[in-house]
Protein: Peptidoglycan hydrolase
Amino acid sequence: MKILKRFCFVIVLFLVSSFCFAQSVTQNYIEENKDFSIQLMNKYHVPASIILAVAIHESASGTSKIARYLNNHFGIKGPNSNTQINSSYKGFEIVEDSYLNFIDMLQSRSKFKTLFDKYTDYDYRSWAYGIQSGGYAASKTWASQVIGLIKKHKLYEYDNRPDEYLEPIEAVNVSVFYNVKKGDTLGEISKKYHTTVKSLKTINNLNSTVLRIGQKLKIK
Structure:
């Protein structure tokens, strides 16, 4: 038992240490690159939060192989002359060149350049989904992941937001339940809660419309 407890303690300690290390790496990355991201925002009007979050996401906070060997922090493909790594990703002399190349890509490609006229330099949500829609990444959750990084590390604080601007509060999904009473039917319950019998059956994994008194149904 003591050995098991000691083993569990070591595992927990390792996981906590790994998490703290990852947090530290990302925070250091933000500190190192936030000023240049703000400069780019002020000049090109792309939110600094987007620039930073995309770089963090694509380079694993500067720890990925292409970030270390090619100074490529945005996962953009192209030629490189590096002999230490066999890669189809573009190589840069310095990290800042990778950041500039990201901005240039957004400005030069038709699927992205319309974003500059449509969105402000603090509407990071629209920028994230706009970049995803333009085909920057294959993952359908890419924009959500980038937005998650912005919110987690409060990168929106580096954007040019108006003084009176308030960060939108995300709606909280609250589950609603109903206890079946004598005489209840799925049809009546669905009408009462403006849903459908099919939806109630799906949510509650029901194979039939037969109910029992006291049964707890999830409405949403």
